Amino acid sequence: MPLIEKVIKEFCAYFTPKGKLIYVGDAKVKWAHFDQKALAAVGVKIKDYHGKMPDLIIHYKEKKWLILVEAVTSHGPIDPKRKIELDELFGKSKAGLVFITAFQDKKTMIKYLEKIAWETEIWVADNPTHLVHLNGKRFLGPYAKS
């Protein structure tokens, strides 16, 4: 979980200061941390846990955002199919949804770049103060629910 640790320590510190970590898990250790009450407080109740959760969920109260992060170490990025799954799972959130795909380095990012969904963000651990924004009107923010 080194990439997930970097997301927590570096991404969160820089882009979501004072954000509340709601969930941490990955392919090996699902449910390493889960604050079910905090997730319910933003209007999300998870019914089907199997394989649906992102690697991290951060509630950035200051902006009223729910940040959903996929750390690309075991599974792939937030591609269009995965974005739809996450939209369905977290669609009732009172907080706006922000989708982040995290990579250890640019070389890995380039390997997956063509698969990543539009209207998402990319964070690369070896350049922790920068984001790659994939189109849309917003930069690091939620889109209106359609």
Write a concise synopsis of the structure shown.
Helix content is 26%, strand content 23%. It has four helices and seven strands, in the order H-E-E-H-E-E-H-E-H-E-E.
Write the layout of secondary structure elements.
Blueprint: H1 2-15, E1 20-24, E2 33-34, H2 36-41, E3 56-60, E4 65-71, H3 80-90, E5 96-103, H4 106-112, E6 121-124, E7 131-133
Summarize the structure in words.
This protein has 146 residues and is α/β, with parallel strands linked by helices. The chain has one domain (2-133): BsuBI/PstI restriction endonuclease, C-terminal domain (Trna Endonuclease, Chain: A, domain 1), CATH 3.40.1350.80. The protein contains 4 helices and 7 strands; from the N terminus they run H-E-E-H-E-E-H-E-H-E-E. The chain has helices at residues 2-15, 36-41, 80-90, 106-112, and strands spanning 20-24, 33-34, 56-60, 65-71, 96-103, 121-124, 131-133. The protein has a 7-stranded mixed sheet, sandwiched between helices. A hairpin with a 4-residue loop joins strand 3 and strand 4. It is globular and about 40 Å long. The mean pLDDT is 89.
